[in-house]
Amino acid sequence: MPELPEVETVKRTLAKYLIGQKIIQVSVYQETVIKIPDVNEFKNEIINKTITDIDRRGKYLIFGLSEGYKMVIHLRMTGQLVYGEKTMPVKKHTHVIFELSDGRELRFTDQRRFGRIWLVPEDELLGVSGLCTLGPEPLRDDFCWEAFQSQLSKRQTRIKALLLDQSFIAGIGNIYADEILYRSQIHPERKAASLSKDEAARLFSEVQSTLKEAIAHRGTTFSDYVDGRGEKGTYQNYLNVYQQLGKKCPRCGADIERVKVGSRSAYYCPGCQK
DNA sequence: ACAATATCCTGCGAGC
DNA sequence: TGCTCGCAGGATATTG
Hints:
N-terminal domain of MutM-like DNA repair proteins; DNA-binding; 2 domains
């Protein structure tokens, strides 16, 4: 599941190779992945544009293109964006291939077909669904403790559900929500407003440190995730609770348990998450 | 405005 | 062996 650390790693690996390259040709094999505009217009508009920069907002990748265009890509669950030689075997579920000016290719594959691509003029970027309602970026300097605490105190939903809400905070998915709550020693079913100031402060801090550590380890590869060069991450070796059912808590030795929060699994330690 | 739930999609493993 | 069922979860639409 590409969450903030995985998308950030894809961004960094791709930036090394793609900036300055021109898109020579594009093939679309699964039309539903192109959200905006329609496929023919997408092809016409993107050909001969140069990639000027790559940015990330939450789990969205934003490619700056020449002539003031932006291409936005969301990998959702199983999306992969890999740069490499034309001679690489074409994987099943390859939906879009971009041919680049250096003779290599950028390929978008997505087993579950949840991923989406938008191409818009710069001034219509906020028209990309989800982008304009995105909450604060947790690793930016302007991630604000006062606002975080104030928002928490007003919400009756369970804390795990709130961490997954992209309009509350951008970039956290199921893996890091569980890991962040474990490190903060907070039970996933606690109501957000019930957290003490100390608990909220721990949460605010662990959101940032967990995501930073995961980026340092190039993300978590649980099933599908690979970076922009097809390499797996290593943070799966450092998980404390996510998918660790039946294992012992590294902190207190209790058995890790699982509950449903909404329709998602939440893994936690019943011994030390209160 | 907020909270909770159904929906999309494919592959995989469990159970019979 | 081969079938069905449940599970995995990001974001959005819908319902209460």
